[in-house]
Design a protein that fits this description.
Family: Belongs to the short-chain dehydrogenases/reductases (SDR) family.
Strand order of the largest sheet: 3-2-1-4-5-6-9
GO molecular function: oxidoreductase activity
Order of helices and strands: HHEHEHEHEHEHEEHHEHE
CATH topology: Rossmann fold
Keywords: Oxidoreductase
Number of strands: 9
Structural class: alpha/beta
CATH architecture: 3-Layer(aba) Sandwich
Shape: globular
Protein name: Short chain dehydrogenase
Bound molecules: NADP nicotinamide-adenine-dinucleotide phosphate
CATH superfamily: NAD(P)-binding Rossmann-like Domain
Number of helices: 10
Number of domains: 1
Pfam family, one: adh_short_C2
Helix content: 40-55%
Length: 269
């Protein structure tokens, strides 16, 4: 049996194009990795996208990448970019105002800030991690609650380390766990407004974030490390983003955390 075939990703084709065509999504963290892949997939099914990220050059490149999905778009409003911190409510207000009408919000902003053994973390370090990550989640929640129309959705990100933690990750994983709980709390709170709230819990997905980790900075290193995973590889950003599109498009899914990890959480430790 060839392992090469099992380790080759199959391109993602969303079956949900009719549900998302003509909608508008704000992608907080849409300038790289999973958020950028969501932008490409959304544009390919006819949605408008607003990308939000802090680094102006990365934002410019991402807007250009998503516009290239449909070169006929030109510089119109099918793909917009807003530079700023997703935890700043003014940035989100600017994104909503620029779009005019927003149906879906996806938050993939974040990283691995706040890592370190608990004995070496100051209260200030912990507070800063919570302030930045949870603050950003609440900022998105407030924007969604006040500005999304009935039928809209908010999707957060977390990671499988929440259920299979590694040492030295207490602060960031506490925040990721809180985001999963926030998802359920908001789902019941916002259901009367006919808004849905979900989270995608990612395993190891081949993005610039994963490649920033020690020993994972080349294609060979990624392939070698991924070869021990159940499906013989790490996930692609498109596969991860495809789950977020599913959650945007399915009007009867709310309060859920769905895992995209190629079965890694099931594996032996
Ligand atoms: N990749 C994985 O293996 C993995 C596994 C588990 C969980 N996750 C989670 O999945 C999410 C997406 O990860 P990824 O791999 O796609 O990461 P990525 O490639 O590093 O992309 C993250 C994006 O978020 C933006 N960003 C970060 N902080 C921001 C902020 N405060 N405001 C606005 N934008 C911000 C970054 O751009 P700027 O820096 O320019 O703002 C970047 O565009 C993250 O929350 C990550 O923790 C990823």
């Amino acid at each position: 049996m060839s392992t090469a075939t099992t380790a080759t990703p199959i391109p993602v084709h969303s079956p949900l194009s009719s549900a998302l065509s003509g909608t508008t999504a704000v992608l907080v963290g849409g300038t790289s990795g999973i958020g950028l892949a969501a932008g490409v997939l959304l544009r390919s099914v006819g949605a408008r996208v607003v990308l939000v990220g802090r680094d102006a050059d990365r934002l410019k490149a991402a807007v250009s990448r998503v516009r290239n999905v449909n070169p006929a778009d030109g510089p119109g409003d099918a793909v917009l970019g807003i530079a700023g911190d997703g935890g700043d409510e003014r940035t989100l207000a600017e994104a909503f105002d620029a779009a005019g009408h927003v149906d879906h919000v996806l938050v993939t902003a974040g990283g691995i800030g706040g890592a370190g053994p608990v004995s070496e973390l100051s209260v200030g370090d912990v507070r800063a991690t919570f302030d930045s990550r949870l603050g950003a989640a609440f900022a998105a929640a407030r924007a969604a609650a006040t500005r999304l129309p009935a039928g809209g959705s908010l999707t957060f990100s977390s990671g499988t380390l929440v259920v299979r933690p590694l040492p030295g990750m207490a602060a960031p994983l506490s925040v990721a766990g809180a985001v999963e709980t926030l998802t359920r709390a908001l789902a019941v709170e916002l259901a009367p407004a006919r808004l849905r709230v979900n989270t995608v819990r990612f395993g190891r997905i081949d993005t610039p974030l994963l490649r920033s980790l020690p020993g994972l900075d080349s294609d060979d290193a990624i392939a070698a490390a991924g070869s021990t995973a159940p499906l013989g590889r790490f996930g692609t950003a498109e596969e991860a983003a495809g789950a977020a599109l599913f959650l945007m498009a399915n009007n009867y899914v709310t309060g859920q955390v769905i895992t995209v990890d190629g079965g890694e959480t099931l594996g032996r430790s």
